[in-house]
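Second attempt. The first submission of Transcriptional regulator, GntR family had a stray character pasted in from the spreadsheet, which I only caught after the job came back as garbage. Lesson logged: always re-copy from the clean sequence file. Corrected sequence (250 aa) follows.
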Amino acid sequence: MQNTENESAPSSFLAVTKVERMRLHDTVVTHLRNLIVEGALAPGMKLNERELCETLGISRTPLREAMKVLAAEGLIDIAPNRGAFVSRMSDTEIWESFEVMSGLEAMSGELAAMRITPVEIAEIKALHYAMIACRAQNDLPGYYSRNQTIHNKINEAARNSVLRQTYLSINRRLLALRFKSNFQAGKWDSAIQDHEEMIKALETRDGPRLGAILRKHLLEKRDAILRDLAGAPAAADSKSTASDKTTAAA
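This time the job returned cleanly.
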């Protein structure tokens, strides 16, 4: 009888190999996304595959697979014969994306107020206290991570799969801008106050109030981002930014 022992691998081996490849793929995507979100790879920067492979300790194949995922998310632009670049959003794209995102956040809050469980509220409160601790330690990545997890949990608590997928799709392109918008300590403190109001609205099941807070929270973040990009004084109000939108769209 012919020995086929070496002709095919055991199913358990194939399963382990598949899991390891999936873990590597997810890990590379996460690391590369974080480099973009936290500004290590700036908008418009060309991605050097050799340097990234050395930094991440991987070969070019998983790196290129990860780039394709991030290109689908809108974080990377891949140009034939030119390579890959970190996506750069125009002022108009930023304005319109945050405008839509503010509506999605507001809807999430309105639905979550009706559907969230006491356990989920407790989890959000714990994240809020952890966020405050990060603020005290000037830990921006830790602060931002918990901040975004709070918004994510409110969206999940809305229990609407269509809203969920739309929210995730648009938010991916805004992650780097949302991270950068917290560089000033005053913005950290303002966000903490908004989050305290969010928690009160959740606890009282006040959907309209929570929706209004989330909408205002996102639009103020948008205005702060556009001011920073334009180099305008931080004291400029949202009305001046609103007037700039017409110019940006022209």
